[in-house]
Amino acid sequence: MSEWCRFSVVYWHTFRGVGSDPFGPQTLFRPWDTADNTSIPFDDIVASCCGRVDAAFEFFTKLGVEYYAFHDRDVAPELATIDETNKLLEKVTDYMLVKQKETGVKLLWGTANLFSHPKFANGAATNPDIKVFAQACAQVKKAMEVTHKLGGEGYVFWGGREGYQTLLNTDIKKELDHMAAFFHMAVAHKKSIGATFQFYIEPKPKEPTKHQYDYDAQTVMCFLKQYGLDDHFLLNIEPNHSTLAGHNYEHDIVLSAAYGKLGSIDCNTGDELLGWDTDQFLTDERKATLVMKVVIDMGGFKTGGLNFDSKVRRESTDLEDLFIAHIGSMDTFAKGLLNAAKLIEDGRLDDMRKARYSTWTSDKIGAKVESGKATLAELEAYAKKNNDVKPISGKQELYERVFNDAL
Ligand SMILES: [Mn+2]
């Protein structure tokens, strides 16, 4: 079960989340909380960051998870210069490496925060100012290097503010060309440092910008093809982003897996009535079953896992709520895994869906179309011979009934 699920705890929500929202400030006060006060002596900053690392690894081991994920700025704040910032990040990640070796906890993936700092207000890799673009390049370069040092199995690009607020001020083609150039440089740098981690792009349709370029799985896959990046990236799917795009919870997971592009999952959920990115812990067994069915069907994760990009509610103020949330959601996915295995062993659902397309194999012309060798004239002749077409039943209610048998 641990091999199928590969659970991962995120540094940002669990150790840096304070419960603030657009309507009010901090509600969550943690023993490891230290403000990112960068005016104290360098060694004191290091000590404060390492204290938080201790708390994080204590939590990982008490929870029994094997993986975690972090942004560069979660673990060490940005200082006045790139050199000072990198020196601090090296110190803190050196200590994280010590803790990894001590506990056996591994890094699922690393990433760079290219969206919080005010300089990234107009985007990072799609910024209209090449000086900001360069800042993003420098930051990603370092984040990749520390991920490599920590033996990270993946590296994620989430385009935090890569999008637009108004088309009136935006040259979309230029911005997408720049983003592709940025990814090509990352691919080259990965090679130059000898890193073997898997690159992922995480789609999201909107928020904070009105339109994010990595809109959904299908959009990202087309972008990768268009710019010759296809071989170097898989997708990290967050179902709450899929629902923001107007899709079903499992849509992007199913779609990316269908093309062999599902790499990892940020296994959170949203609230159907809110319509913004609430990053909640999933406790819906039905949705977990849909996800785990795809994971089993693709033969399991290789470098990815189920990463809890999830936060406790602003009102869940007890420290134990962090444990309850993670344990509750792990149980939900574990149940989802068992249900999915039951569905596959039962076989009815897969058989029914296969049978739905049976004429494509029973009639020879089907294989010819699928191989790209058929002509419209041949299909016309086939159509004339098979003119008695009527709809076959979609049987949605039966499919839903059979699915429920597994729950
Ligand atoms: Mn995410």
From TrEMBL:
Enzyme class: isomerase
Gene Ontology molecular function: metal ion binding; xylose isomerase activity
PROSITE patterns registered for this protein in UniProt: XYLOSE_ISOMERASE
Keywords: Carbohydrate metabolism, Isomerase, Metal-binding, Xylose metabolism
Gene Ontology biological process terms, A to Z: D-xylose metabolic process
This protein's record includes keyword Electron transport: no
Catalytic reactions of this protein: alpha-D-xylose = alpha-D-xylulofuranose
EC number annotated for this UniProt entry: 5.3.1.5
Organism domain of life: Eukaryota
Family the UniProt entry places it in: Belongs to the xylose isomerase family.
Protein's name in the database: Xylose isomerase
